[in-house]
Prior knowledge:
The complex is a heterodimer of chains A (367) and B (348). Chain A is mainly alpha-helical and 367 residues long. Chain A has helices spanning 4-19, 34-58, 64-86, 89-127, 131-134, 152-183, 186-198, 203-217, 224-248, 252-260, 265-293, 297-302, 321-329, 334-366. The longest helix of chain A has 39 residues, at 89-127. Chain B has 348 residues and is an all-alpha fold. Chain B contains 14 helices and 2 strands, in the order αααββααααααααααα.
Amino acid sequence: MTALPPQASTIPAIGAALHGSAAGTRRRTSARTGDDLRVLIGSGIASLATTWLFYEQVLPLSGKVGFVIAWYVTFLAYYAGTTALVAPRHVVTDRVMTAVVIGAPCLVAVALVSMVLFTVLKGWTALVHLNFYTSDATGVGPLDPLDKGGISHAIVGTLIEIGLAVAIALPLGLATAVYLSEVGGRLSRLVRTVIEAMTALPSIVAGLFVYAVFRTELHMPASGLAAALALSIMGLPIMTRAADVVLRVVPGGLREASYALGAGHWQTVWKVVLPTARPGLATALILGIARMVGETSPLLLTTGASSFFTVNPLHDPMNSLPLYTFTAVTSGEPRFVERGYAAATVLLLLVLILFLIARLVARRREI
Amino acid sequence: MTLVQLPTADTRELEPVGEPPPQPRRITARRSLGDRVFAATARTTGSVVLLIVLAIGLFLGWQVAPTVSHYGWGFFTRQEWQPNRDVLGIAAAIVGTVEIAAIALIIAFPLALLSALFVSDWAPPRLRPFLIRVVDLMAAVPSIVFGLWGLMLIEPHAAHVAHWFSKYFGWIPFFKVHTDVDYPVWNQLPGYASYSGSAFIAAIAVSMMVFPMATSVMREVFSQAPQGEKEAAIALGSTHWAMVRTVVIPFGRSGIIGGTMLALGRALGETISVVLIISQAYQVKLNVLESGTQSISALIATSAKEATPSQRSALLAAGFLLFVMTLFVNTIAGNIVSRGRTGAGTEI
């Protein structure tokens, strides 16, 4: 990109010299002409008409997905054909590939938007009731109207479970990352390898491990603590790895400068390395938390889908948003299913909030 | 002035012959108590984490022994899962897991590759940070939301697509569905029911889950493509696509392969969306469009709570197998990504 500014200034000058005008009107450097736009729009309309005629009227085909696919393919053919009338072959390839490259993210965007809208709309009837956020589900049956009962127990449960899991995984993960990148030694290579291997641990296996060891061998009750343990086993390697990556990109010059000023090892880490890496660390860790919030499978085996409000993670089964959603939508009762979608919407919102916090923390670095 | 004079003073002192050469000053500083405590604490924490993590891995691996001694090696090759008869096998689950992950990649790979190219080379620069953030946000969407979306919104449409494939390509064993394909799909029996809950539909939800991971790895590598080579390609008269094809894609090959493998690792372990969508069947099935399949994670999620101790160790052994598969894929992926072409750009 460094070469561009001088280019931009010389081209109009050359143009002015060629045309002999001293005023030097700026030449348009964009390669796109009005014809290109007309070709694009024309191919779009023509392909829509052709697809409608053949797909809906002539051939015995039906289905919305099929129509869209047929339209897209026809459009590409028309677009290539009309371009080929006026441009050489490599321009045709370029145009078609551009259309293909733009088509893929559009498809994903449609999927993403449809998913969010679908979840919100399905849960809307439950979301508009204030009691949905403030009361728990004690004594509320699946058939009860939506102005009775809510998910406060699941919201609080999620917060407690995530809080516990973070309280276990975050200090251990951060300390291990500091060990890996700042202290080092022969053992650290083994630790790094093993940690990286454990990031491959599927979340359901982490849940099964906690279920097998803590709940059946050690007779721990179905509780929020068991869920938090499973989440922290899943989250510890992810957080350690993310923090390690962030610490490793702290410039070595900063450390050397600190040592040169007479600081010790601990002072360098505490006063130089960690503050430098803080925004990056915060972002990486919050993204790790966002992933832990949405995990359902470890919760299936470690805690119960209770209906009552509890803040004690040690004894009683503690519900949480993903687990509530799962039990609600698999129940088959229409009202309960609506509550499930509403809980999923709240969960999406929670992830979004965590994300915005991560953005805010990261932005502080730029100032 | 003093600074200039110092060396001469030094050389004069060193001049005399016969004296032993001066010893270099020891530069290792004596570590303060705080530093020693810090290093020891960090080392201890690292060792504790290592022990915890190793203990988990070993515990899982150790469960293979009781499983094999109870159910025999046939545990890995048998299809039936009949706890009542004390006959367990996970062959169907292994095949199903691989099928779902493979189809998910077939769907996600082109989407991720093209989207990564779009973000790195086509999108307007002002839009780029926003797109990157959206992809990151998509990675954090809870899997249960993807599962619900796949089950309620996508399945009816996907069943149509599956029906079309089985009707016209049923002669390929993978696309065969054991039903009357001429029956309209909207009719309950034997149409729609034969197409719902298949590996194909579960794979659509999983593909959306692994898409962000693959896209962000690929985009990261594409954005490091040397600017000088890109400009050289444009200056030589190539079109935008030709520039991408000759510079960006060859440069990002390690990212393409590595990102895909990482996505595969994630797809293998995906649980809740698969549990929601598939109709579980304990049968090795190659026809992926047909209702009924199984995956290791779904098997664990649904049968762990009612398991007897021997069945539980069987499930743990299955989980260990899943872990080993994911680990294998991730290790290869990590090697490929880190082996990518670096420092070879023309930019100085």
